[in-house]
TrEMBL record:
<dbReference type="Pfam" id="PF00498">
    <property type="entry name" value="FHA"/>
</dbReference>
<dbReference type="InterPro" id="IPR008984">
    <property type="entry name" value="SMAD_FHA_dom_sf"/>
</dbReference>
<dbReference type="InterPro" id="IPR050923">
    <property type="entry name" value="Cell_Proc_Reg/RNA_Proc"/>
</dbReference>
<protein>
    <submittedName>
        <fullName>FHA domain-containing protein</fullName>
    </submittedName>
</protein>
<feature type="domain" description="FHA">
    <location>
        <begin position="23"/>
        <end position="72"/>
    </location>
</feature>
<dbReference type="InterPro" id="IPR000253">
    <property type="entry name" value="FHA_dom"/>
</dbReference>
Amino acid sequence: MAKILISRDGVLEKTVQLTKERMTVGRHGHNDIVLEHQTVSGEHAAITTILDDSFLEDLQSTNGTFVNGHRVGKHFLQHGDTIKLAKYRIEFVADGIRPISGVPALPLPLAPARIEVLNGSNAGRLLELNKPQTSLGRAGVQVVTVNRTEAGYAAVHADGDRVPLLNGAPLGKLPQALADGDVLDLSGTRMTFRLG
């Protein structure tokens, strides 16, 4: 299962396995992860892990939550992300092992989304993303899956030797969050992700 490495002033203070589906971080003792410093809010942030995906959410903290130097409200965590909570530096380490959940997650309503083909013989074709997982491409050549989670949509290179592109950059084997207008390129076929 994924874990976080918590450091302060360059010293590793603790390593915490993300064993629960939702773990809160804050100064108060009832949090799953307690960071005892006055610059940390009583209930500062939460990390939600569903299957292989982890999401960080700021809980309206006073000093904010930052990932890789950017202030975030909600963020899809990827291996190696650096989280900053007040005086603490937290490294997210993903290992692909799923946490055990006693209660199945209830899907939250998401904004409808679709993929629109931009070029080629299927230009203008729309594909509604109404399933938990939608596959794009050809098996054995290049496959991208788009996964629906409670936090939104994420794309991952699932199969094939050819590396697909997301907004011109290689799409890896770890899920990457999709935003409205993002462009996927599968062997020259370009398609855009649309929300709403």
